[in-house]
Amino acid sequence: MRCCGKLLSSFLVGLFILIASSSTQAADISIRNPQLSAGDEGYVLSADFTINLNARLEEVVAKGVALYFVVDFELSRSRWYWLDEQVVGRSQSYQLSYHALTRQYRLSSGALHQSFATLDEALRILTRLRNWPVLDKGSLAAGQTYQLALRMRLDLTQMPKTFQVNALANRDWNLTSEWARWNLTPGDVSSLGVAATLAPATGESK
User: Fold this and answer.
1) Is 59 helix (H, G, I), strand (E, B) or coil?
2) Count of H helices and E strands in the chain?
3) 84: which DSSP letter?
4) How far apart are alpha carbons 156 and 54 in whole angstroms?
5) Which residues is 141 bridged to in the sheet?
6) Which parts of the chain have pLDDT scores under 70?
7) pLDDT digits (tens, 9 = 90+) for 70-104
8) Do the beta carbons of residue 114 and residue 96 sit within 8 Å?
9) 154 φ/ψ angles, rounded to the nearest 5 degrees
10) pTM
11) Fewest beta carbons within 10 Å, which of 54, 57, 105, 206?
12) Which residues contact 102 (CB under 8 A, 6 or more apart)?
């Protein structure tokens, strides 16, 4: 077992060195059309993303290393007497991987799995967030102003540790959208279509 562990570690180190030496173009994520709407059991969020992977990230996936994408949603409300109150914070994770035996890309979220013949097909589904439950009924009060924020990011902490140390210090692996932010003051909370503005991407939403 110790021998197998050393072989796996050597393989990952060699793979990283090979991929790190390749030239890349910029990778980025952007957000369009975030919409919060009332569902049967609460409020659901939908949005479209544009995801551009660079050659390095595409090669990582093709070599069998999974990439983990996380969608973060936050809802807060202002308080004149204290700091803003965070009402809701939600995250949803997606795993993008390639299986050499089946020659298919796989996109997983929780217990749900889908397989695709090409990377483009998998990314096309990843870019479409639809009807994600983020709020329970009664969470929003009419006349109250809320601040909403949404982003997507590549989560390096879920990758093999051999990659984490190097990737965290390499800007080519820094794949995070700007926060899409908007204010919402629901009058009739059954209809909550929104438009978003973009805020600089940071580690915090505030």
Assistant:
1) helix
2) 4, 10
3) P
4) 15
5) none
6) 1-26, 80-84, 165-169, 187-206
7) 999 999 987 766 666 778 999 999 999 999 999 99
8) no
9) -85, 120
10) 0.78
11) 206
12) 115
Residue 13 counted as domain residue: yes
Give the other-Cβ count within 10 Å of 159's Cβ.
Answer: 19
| Residues in CB range of 126: below 8 A, 6 or more apart | 49, 51, 69, 94, 96, 107
Instruction: Tell me the DSSP string of 152-192.
Output: EEE-GGGS-HHHHHHHTT-GGG--BPPEEEEEE--SSTT--
Residue 81 is which amino acid? Y
In a domain, 64, yes or no: yes
Neighbouring-strand partners of residue 94: 69
Token pair of 182 as six digits: 């908007």
Separation of alpha carbons 128 and 202, rounded Å: 23
Over the stretch 33-54, which tens digit does the pLDDT of each residue have?
999 988 888 899 999 999 999 9
Count of domains for the chain: 1
